[in-house]
Design brief:
It contains 15 helices and 20 strands. It has an eight-stranded mixed beta sheet, covered by helices on one side. A five-stranded mixed beta sheet has the order 9-10-13-11-12, covered by helices on one side. With 488 residues, the chain is an alpha+beta fold. It has helices at 9-17, 24-34, 93-98, 141-151, 248-262, 268-271, 274-280, 287-298, 310-318, 331-340, 346-349, 370-387, 414-417, 428-438, 449-468; strands spanning 40-49, 52-59, 101-108, 111-116, 119-123, 132-137, 161-164, 167-168, 176-187, 193-205, 214-217, 220-224, 230-233, 302-304, 322-324, 344-345, 364-365, 392-397, 403-406, 409-413.
């Protein structure tokens, strides 16, 4: 009976050759690193003439390759499928490497299998321990050097010395290690790979100078991200069939975990990156991490734009706050920023004073003294002369500003000023307060250019009036008016 499929070695080699040479040693190393009890892995890459390169990968596992048929059976059921802490999935990696070889040999504790021009040949020759792969590969000098250079980016497992052409792979020190729950792949009882979530240790490293941040699967590079860190995930990571592209959903979850566990390590450029922006709007982003990003990007003094108190926004800016507008974040990001509880509307932080007492109740009206009546006469005359407006004057208690203006009614807070403030001849501070309030005839926003222009115009007018009609500023001329009405 013939098999369902035949595999063309030449066809397969053409397909895998398109991946370049950087992956070759990774496929061989992952098997060596996963071997039970291994403590030493040695790799040799040397020219063999005529565009060929000899690659030898040898480990010291006391068990070795237990099932020699896996060396040549594509997609055979792999024991690694059920263990998310091991790197292989499809029992495919070394077969892809073999497709590039003119000849090869795999010797292990269960026997030896050789591959040559005449096909495959088994031998009873066994090793005392470990497995040795030797392949004569169609790899020129440039590609061989690229493969060696690529393998020096790998992160060797703890407890396993890994030598490449006699040079030990660098043992890198993580800048942060944390545990989180991430998606992974594990085989069910029937050997079918299923997605699940599992707690895993994640290590963050500073990338080598000039190299982009990369996601690793247990020390093997999977996909460059360009992010700040090299990120080594201690279990199988969901990726494409060719094992060179991460699933977007996994990368999103991984980045959220980095945000939650290493916010303070993020550099300024990273805080403004697209991935951080996406992470702070994702379910699972910790409020503390979101708050930290906002504070580090915009500072400790931050408020949101208040549509109900527009002057409060300008007051906040004047007080050194950064005002965040609606366009700063999208809906999901705003939900998490607000949940972090670190940003309040400007109207709650720098509110515009209102002529009301607590709980919105109108302030209490006050019967004016004789001096207050004379002052009211001056205010009415000055407003008419300087701004050509007829203004009523009201004296109040219990509201939170010294004075207020609206509806052509100028209110003075006796609780703040006291009745003695109105005694004696006219003083600069009194004219100052009147001009300040009369400026609101033209603009309500204290911090606007229009309001500032109104004050300078009224100040200049007051000077001219003092020169032309100094009697306008003599309070005694107004007498203690008997017709003063207490009005609201």
């Amino acid at each position: 009976m013939s098999a369902w499929f035949d595999v063309s070695k030449e066809g397969l080699s053409k397909l895998v050759a398109r991946r370049g040479s950087h992956w070759i040693l990774g496929e061989l190393l992952q098997n060596a690193w996963d071997a039970p009890g291994v403590t030493l892995v040695q790799v040799s890459v040397s020219p063999a003439g005529r565009g060929l390169t000899e690659i030898v990968v040898e480990d010291d596992s006391p068990v070795g390759f237990t099932n020699l048929t896996h060396a040549f059976t594509i997609f055979a059921e792999s024991g690694k499928k059920g263990d998310p802490s091991q790197r292989g999935r499809f029992n495919l990696g070394e077969k892809l490497v073999l497709s590039l070889c003119n000849e090869a040999e795999i010797a292990t504790t269960s026997g030896t299998v050789s591959f040559g021009p005449d096909g495959r040949r088994n031998s009873r020759a066994k090793r005392a321990r470990g497995t040795a792969f030797r392949g004569l590969m169609r790899l020129n000098r440039v590609d061989a050097e690229a493969a060696v250079k690529a393998v020096h980016r790998f992160i060797p497992p703890q407890g396993i010395r890994t030598l490449v052409n006699g040079v030990e792979l660098e043992r890198r020190v993580p800048v942060r290690t944390f545990t989180c729950t991430l998606p992974t792949e594990i085989a069910d009882e029937e050997g079918v790979l299923k997605r699940t979530r599992r707690k895993v240790e994640v290590n963050l490293y500073a990338p080598a100078e000039g190299l982009p941040g990369t996601v690793y699967e247990m020390g093997i590079p999977v996909s460059e991200t360009g992010d700040q860190f090299d990120v080594d995930v201690g279990q199988k990571v969901p990726q494409s069939f060719e094992r060179d592209t991460l699933l977007p959903s996994f990368l999103r979850d991984l980045r959220v975990a980095i945000l939650n566990n290493a916010t303070e390590l993020l550099e300024e450029r990273e805080l403004a990156s697209d991935w951080v922006a996406q992470a702070i709007g994702t379910d699972g982003a910790a409020p503390e991490a979101v708050g930290s990003v906002v504070k580090r990007r915009f500072g400790e003094k931050v408020v949101t734009f208040d549509v109900n108190d527009r002057e409060a926004n300008d007051r906040a800016v004047a007080a050194g706050y950064v005002v965040l507008h609606g366009s700063t974040f999208n809906k999901e990001q705003w939900n998490n920023v607000k949940a972090a509880g670190i940003v309040r509307p400007a109207g709650q932080v720098t509110p515009t004073p209102k002529p009301f007492s607590d709980e919105g109740k109108l302030a209490e009206l006050v019967e004016p003294t004789s001096a207050m009546r004379r002052f009211a006469g001056f205010v009415e005359a000055f407003c008419k002369a300087s701004a050509d407006v007829d203004v009523d004057v009201t004296y109040l208690k219990w509201f939170n500003a010294m004075a207020a203006y609206g509806g052509r009614n100028m209110c003075f807070n006796v609780t703040k000023l006291g009745t003695a403030w109105f005694e004696g001849p006219l003083r600069q501070e009194q004219v100052d307060l009147v001009i300040h309030e009369l400026g609101h005839e033209y603009e309500s926003n204290h911090l606007s250019t229009k309001y500032n222009d109104a004050l300078t115009r009224l100040g200049a007018k007051a000077v001219m009036l003092a020169l032309e009609n100094p009697g306008l500023f003599d309070l005694s001329r107004y007498g203690a008016r008997q017709d003063f009405r207490v009005s609201a």
